[in-house]
């Protein structure tokens, strides 16, 4: 572990690195057909019908220089996203990419001496993060970056942004309303966040974040050989897992990889999801002691590492309550073995495999594995 500007950097073990790299990339046709690839083709068609430009597709190496993932895109040196609590480092110079936009600066620079009238990029593949556990989140989601570079004479910044969002959302999510809100980003101007309303939850107004976009930062264009006096463009990043779930009506992100034949058959097309018999929920509550600075993303990562393949049984981790040491009664302090710098968390594990039944003994085993991975108190309380 090393530190820099109050950020911490832990490196992956060889086993962790190989496990991450062995995961199937659902956007890659060479690794098998998947509906996610159809979304990428639809996005390409939508862009080609809107802007006259040469478009490249790129699925680059997921191991990237730290410089390309952050510095080249304009991230600040002390940005929280650099911390290894949220990013996965191979060593001080290399990491598993957190975004497919890490390929963009080198791509822009590679065209600096040719500079066609206009240029487009579809950069796609797995990205690697540390994230919470619920039906919308994965530690290895798929991302699609859509970048378009155009001469300013062809369209204004506002037109590029408005027309591109309308065309792409109308194509990828034709039956969903998409809300747009302001969201600053290191390598864009006029940045916005895109949130879709999940079908069946319109009355409640439940929003699902599906991406961010904006006009390309002029400084990024200038650094890579495209004069911002003459060029502008679009930078959009979409979470393909969520877009596919919304498009098909898939209720759980784990289903995208579920090997159950009835599930995998449905992952070949964009046809609406036909429910596969779901198992009843099994719940387990945990009262445990943690560092006061830990958050649900770190908890999710610790749990995934501890459970390994058994993580597929865990549908959700819900934070029921969080209580500081100072607010606990003496009897609870003694029972938990908690210190002044720690908090007492009450977590609820929601256990349900997408297609298999869960034995009670296995539910208790999973509960105890999670408890031992997270609890930092001096007292231990396991389920029997």
The strand order across the widest sheet is 3-7-8-12-11-10-9
Total helices: the number is 11
Report the top-level CATH class of the largest domain: Alpha Beta
CATH superfamily of the largest domain: Bira Bifunctional Protein, Domain 2
Low-pLDDT segments: 1-5
Backbone shape: globular
| Number of structural units classed as domains | 2
| Mean of all residue-level pLDDT scores | 92
The proportion of residues forming helix, as a percent range, comes to: 25-40%
Global Rg: 22 Å
Largest sheet: 7 strands, mixed
Topology-level CATH name of the largest domain: BirA Bifunctional Protein, domain 2
Give the number of DSSP strands: 15
Query: Which H/E pattern describes the elements?
Result: EEHHEEHEEHEEHEEEHEHHEHEHEH
Give a description of the structure.
- This protein has 384 residues and is of the alpha+beta class.
- It is 27% helix and 27% strand.
- It has eleven helices and 15 strands.
- The strands form four sheets. Strands 3-7-8-12-11-10-9 form a seven-stranded mixed β-sheet. The chain has a three-stranded antiparallel β-sheet with strand order 4-6-5. The chain has a three-stranded antiparallel β-sheet with strand order 13-15-14.
- Strand 9 (178-182) and strand 10 form a beta hairpin.
- The radius of gyration is 22 Å and the shape is globular.
- Residues 65-272 form the Aminoacyl-transfer RNA synthetases class-II family profile domain.
- Keywords: Aminoacyl-tRNA synthetase, ATP-binding, Ligase, Nucleotide-binding, Protein biosynthesis, Transit peptide.
- GO terms for molecular function: aminoacyl-tRNA ligase activity; ATP binding; tRNA binding.
């Amino acid at each position: 572990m090393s530190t820099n500007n109050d950020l911490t950097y832990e490196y992956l073990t060889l086993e962790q690195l190989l496990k991450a790299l062995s995961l199937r990339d659902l956007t890659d046709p060479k690794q098998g057909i998947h509906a996610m690839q159809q979304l990428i083709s639809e996005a390409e068609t939508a862009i080609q019908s809107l802007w006259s430009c040469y478009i490249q597709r790129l699925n680059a190496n997921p191991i990237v220089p730290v410089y390309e993932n952050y510095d080249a895109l304009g991230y600040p040196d002390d940005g929280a996203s650099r911390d290894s609590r949220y990013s996965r480092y191979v060593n001080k110079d290399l990491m598993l990419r957190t975004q497919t936009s890490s390929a963009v600066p080198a791509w822009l620079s590679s065209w600096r001496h040719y500079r066609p009238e206009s240029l487009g990029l579809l950069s796609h593949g797995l990205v690697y993060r540390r994230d919470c556990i619920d039906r919308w989140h994965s530690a290895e989601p798929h991302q699609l970056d859509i970048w378009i570079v155009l001469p300013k004479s062809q369209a204004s910044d506002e037109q590029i942004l408005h027309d591109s969002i309308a065309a792409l959302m109308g194509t990828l999510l034709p039956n969903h309303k998409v809300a747009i809100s302001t969201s600053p980003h290191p390598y864009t101007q006029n940045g916005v966040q895109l949130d879709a309303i999940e079908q069946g939850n319109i009355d409640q107004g439940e929003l699902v974040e599906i991406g961010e976009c904006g006009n390309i930062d002029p400084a990024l264009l200038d650094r890579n050989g495209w004069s911002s006096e003459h060029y502008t463009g679009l930078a959009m990043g979409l979470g393909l897992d969520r877009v596919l779930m919304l498009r098909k009506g898939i209720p759980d992100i784990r289903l995208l990889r579920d090997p159950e034949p009835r599930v995998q058959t449905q992952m070949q097309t964009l046809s609406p999801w036909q429910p596969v018999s779901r198992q009843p929920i099994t719940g387990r509550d945990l009262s445990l002691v943690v560092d006061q600075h830990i958050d649900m993303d770190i908890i999710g990562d610790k749990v995934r590492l501890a459970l390994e393949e058994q993580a597929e049984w865990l549908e959700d981790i819900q934070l029921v309550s969080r209580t500081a040491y100072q607010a606990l009664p003496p009897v609870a302090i003694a029972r938990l073995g908690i210190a002044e710098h720690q908090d007492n968390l009450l977590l609820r594990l929601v256990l349900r495999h997408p297609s298999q039944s869960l034995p009670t003994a296995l539910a208790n085993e999973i509960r105890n594995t999670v408890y031992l991975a997270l609890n930092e108190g001096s007292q231990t309380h396991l389920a029997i």
